[in-house]
Amino acid sequence: MTHLDRRHRKTRHDAPAGFFEAEAAGLRWLGEAEAHGGARVVRVLDVGPHHIDLERLHPSHPTAAHAEALGLALARTHAAGAPAFGAPPQGWSGDAWIGRQPQSNDPSRTWGVFYAEQRVRPFVRRALDRGHLDAAGARVVDRVCDRLVAGDFDDDRPPARVHGDLWAGNVVFTTDGAVLIDPAAHGGHGLTDVAMLELFGCSGLDRITAAYDEAAGLERGWRDLVPLHQLHPLAVHAASHGPSYAGPLVDAARAFA
């Protein structure tokens, strides 16, 4: 096997400044938690303005044990913490992205303020501007954002070290267990990662969430808050993928408006 066979290179010649460097910083920051039992993340081998080289992973069929181990490890990654809600990964202070869409990572005083102003409202505005969401639907989501800013959904949990884009495609099951890739890492709320897994589905989801619940010590009724934490990915998709996501976004918001 050659040296290049052992790595996977992602390239993007039109990448905005810092695109791959931000991904590398997020992977390294999340990877720091591995020493304390946190989730495994793909290793960064090299990074530049137009590429990132990662260790090559070999996908395998997920097992129940791997799913349970991921739930436990994810809780430990979150418990590694962050300096503030909205804090960027250590070693990075520039722009941030989810997929190819820009978003900010500015430290905020509360989770609600951060989530409303940096994760939900910007994408709702983009969806509205692009004609993917109508004004009435945007007002429903905006009412929830007002409640978020007011602190109605803040709890006493400290900022968690979250992956930030944890859909099934960013969880690679190998013979050694799950490996996380492509983060939008920041200081946030742990339920955000769980909610995204639930939104788009994942192999062994029930075992993942059960193990996470036990390890993280979630409050009773946490499942009722999952749609709140899904507003961000739904708004992202409404902005980028079109009006088919507008209905689910507004439906999720109505439960909290």
Automatic annotation (TrEMBL):
Keyword field = Kinase, Transferase
Does this entry carry the keyword Amino-acid biosynthesis? Answer: no
InterPro entries cross-referenced by the UniProt entry? Fructo-/Ketosamine-3-kinase (IPR016477), Kinase-like_dom_sf (IPR011009)
Q: Name one Pfam family in it.
A: Fructosamin_kin
Where on the tree of life does the source sit, at the highest rank? Bacteria
Which family would the database say this protein is a member of?
A: Belongs to the fructosamine kinase family.
Protein name per the record: Fructosamine kinase family protein
Higher taxonomy? Bacteria, Bacillati, Actinomycetota, Actinomycetes, Micrococcales
